[in-house]
Structures are given as structure tokens and as C-alpha cells.
Amino acid sequence: MLELTKKLSFLYPTYVLAIVSIGYICGELGHYLIGVTSKAIAEDLHFGDIACQLNNTEVYLSELPVLCSTANNSETCYSYTLNGTPYCEWNYNGLGLDYQILAGPSFIAVFTVVGVLMGFLADKFNRVKMLAVCTVIFGVAIILSGAVNEYWQLVLLRMIMAAGESACNPLATGILSDIFPEAKRALVMSVFNWGIYGGYGIAFPVGRYIPPLNAWGLGWRVTYYGAGVVALLLAFLTWFTLKEPARTAIGEHAQNGGADAKKITIWDVIVDPRVILLCFAASIRHCGGMCFAYNCDLYYQKYFPDYDLGWWLFAVTIVIGSIGVVVGGVVSDKIVAKMGIRSRCIVLAVSQIISTPGAFGSVYFTPTYAMISLGLSYFFAEMWFGILFAMVVEIVPLRVRSTTIGVFLFVMNNIGGNLPIAVEPVSKAIGYRESLYIFYAGCYGFSSILFLLTTFLMEGPKKDVTAPKKDLTGVDNAVFTNDETNLPTITALVSNNKRAVMESSRL
């Protein structure tokens, strides 16, 4: 049995990556399910906006004499008929300020603050055990979210869920960076951080198609029960099958043996211009991603209620997003040896500017071309997260690595996670679609510019510091070393030379 374990030991790093990544996906599934199940929950708990909506999925908008959205009250709404049958309903639509608070600030506020604390503790204590405990916390919170009867209960549980999930990134990033070498680091970080998009990609079919089945009479609640149970299973595997890896210095600080790293504090890292600009760029890019995550399903239901895009959104986010994650990580890892950490920034800037037109098209076009545009955008857009955190762990010293990630996430999530709440007032002023142009596609484009500026602050390729080979042909005193100091006396020199000749002759 011991021999078999040794033979399979090469699979252990991959197993660790799989466990922490799937656990992260479960946490993000619980996080983003609210965006897909919001309408069903709002109808059950009575929160958010009430509007006139299409209640018949068997007709197309082009067949309707009047669009439901034109009605401003319930009497007008129910007066719209097609062949004598009402096709509209006056009900909660899952949108409004209550929803935006539930989806964003209530989660982000706790997620970011506790994330800093978790990053600090990760630099001091056993990261594997902490990760298992935190997975239990957000798993239980997800399960209880399916049992709520009041709006405030759901807000409170999302805050607890955020507290548990906030540990995933700083803890898992530290564990993975100590297990995998630089040659695979961006790819590994990309796979792990893809859990964010994997979570809300899975949320589309889970949130759309499982509640209507009304399994055991639970409706939307069963989706939360299922996600929470899987999270608890992952917590069990994390605690009993993973082990704490040895902490190692990497990136810039590994090159000088970590000598200077002992003098660097978290405050030195925070005021580093590279970290500041990188964090600002990441915050803007995160805003674009969160804006799409929180609003895409509601957007397509609002503008194209006669199209079922659940599986299309799942395919784009999971399949195409996965390909983009792998390609981005591989490209970044391949060229980093030639161009240094700067190469990762270049990949970020180029990928995000290419993804911007597709992001705009996914909101501008009708469903068919919108999905094509979204697929093209996703392929390049999803390269960013893993590469970003590969850069972060490479430019900060070991002793404050997890703390830095916690602070970085605190800033990034407070800006990028809370800024999408502005979609609500802006949409009231200029329109829902137009607000997504700004906070979704616009943020992609702006972040690419900021990533490009960050490139100029990063280090270039590593310099070869190995000594040049000497030409030993002919007579060259350079082949002799340490012959200028501690010169022996003449007597000693003669004695030593003779001894050396005798010993050489014996050989």
C-alpha cells in the first residue's frame, strides 16, 4: 500500500488543485445563484420591484400587440390579451435596489473585510485546516439560505456565506503557489480562479431548470440545499486528505534568497506603485465581470423573455471560459521566462482589449449574435484572473504573501464588487442596456489601458548572472584563483609543491 502511495504521489498536486478548485466553485455557485433565482425568491419573500411581465413562454414578442413592459399598473397589465387570453402578469421581477444590495454590498462588505483577516491568519497558521473550517461555514450558510422566510434572513446568511468564502482565495493561492513551480503557476492560478466563473456558469442551468421541477415541493430552495451539501463534502476531503505544504519564497524574492524580504512589511507592499496600479486595474476589470454576472440573466429575461438562453450561457461560461483560462495560463507561463513578470501584464492588457468589442456586442445584438459575441469575448476575457494572482504572489515576499492577497481582494472587491450597484440609478436615467454598456463593456476596455500602464513598472526578463566560460587554451593566469593573498614562504612553497607532485604521481 505504501509503495502504491509513492507511485501515485505525482498526482497529489493535481488532486489538491481539484479539491480547492471544486470547493471554490461551490462557494461561487452559492454566491451567484441569487442572480438566477432572484425572481422566484422575490415572488416568495416579496422584495424588490414589481412590474408587468410576459407570463407565456409559448409566444414571441413579435406576435404581441403590445409589450408588457409598457404597462405602469396592474389594471393595464392584465388588460393586454392575445386571442382573448391575458399574456402579462403584474408581479415581482427580481430587480430593484433590494436585489442589488442582496447581490452586491451585503456580500462584498463582509467578504472583503474578513478576507484581509484570513490573509493575515494564513501567514501564521495551518492553511489547510483553516480552509476546511471556512468551507464548512459557507456550506452551512448556503443550506440555510434555502430555508429562509424573510428578506433580512437571506441578507444575514449571505453575509455569513461571504465570511466563509473569503478565505478561499488567500488560503488556496498560498497553498498552490508552494506546491507548483513557476513554469505552471499562471495556469494553476487560472484553473483555480476560474472557480468564480465556473460557479456562476453552473448557476444558469441550476437556477433556471431545477426550481420549475419543484422537487419535493421545495422549488428554488432545493438548489441551495444541493450546493451546500456538496460544499460540506469538499470540506471533509480538505480536512482529511490535504496536508499543509512547506512555505517557499518565489518570484523576485526567491532570486536573492529572500534576504531583502525579511525587511519588507505589508505597508511597504501596499505603497508599491506596481501593486497600487495593478489593484486599480483589477478593480475596474472586476467591476465589468461582476456587472455581467449579476445582471446578464435578468437582462436577457427582460429584453428577450421569449428566448431560453440558460444552456447557452452555461456553454459559453463553462466551455469557452475554460478554454480561455487554459490558453491564458499557458501563454503567460511560456513567455514569462523570456520576458519576465512583465509578460503577464502584456497578456492581461492584450486579452482584455480584444474582449471588449465582444462584450459590447453581447448586450447590443439580438440573442443569436449576442451569444456569438459573448463567446468570443469570454475566450479572451477569462484569461485575466489567474494571471493576475500569479503576478501578485511573484512580486511580494513570502512572509506577507497571503496578507497581501487579502488586502488586494479587499480593495478589488470593494471597488469592483460594489460599483455595479450604480447600474440601478443609471439604468433609470438612460436605460438598462445602456448602463451595461458603461459598467460591463466599458470597464473591460478601461482595465486593458490600466494593465498596459502597469507593464512599464514591472521587471523585464531575468538576466543571466552565470560567469562566462574561460578559454583554457594557452597560458592564462585567469585560471588560477586565490593566488594573490596569503602567499606562503619560499620554504613552505617548495614543500607544498613537492607534496602535490608526489600525490599526483600516486594518482
UniProtKB/TrEMBL annotation:
MF terms (GO), sorted A to Z: transmembrane transporter activity
InterPro entries, sorted: MFS, MFS_dom, MFS_spinster-like, MFS_trans_sf
Highest rank taxon of the organism: Eukaryota
A single GO cellular-component term on record: membrane
Range of residues in the leader sequence: none
Cellular localization per UniProt: Membrane
Annotated transmembrane regions: 12-34, 99-121, 128-148, 191-210, 222-242, 309-331, 343-365, 371-393, 405-423, 435-457
This protein's UniProt keywords: Membrane, Transmembrane, Transmembrane helix, Transport
Domain Major facilitator superfamily (MFS) profile: residue ranges: 16-459
Family matches, as Pfam families: MFS_1
Family membership noted in the UniProt record: Belongs to the major facilitator superfamily. Spinster (TC 2.A.1.49) family.
Protein name, UniProt field: Major facilitator superfamily (MFS) profile domain-containing protein
Species this protein is from: Exocentrus adspersus
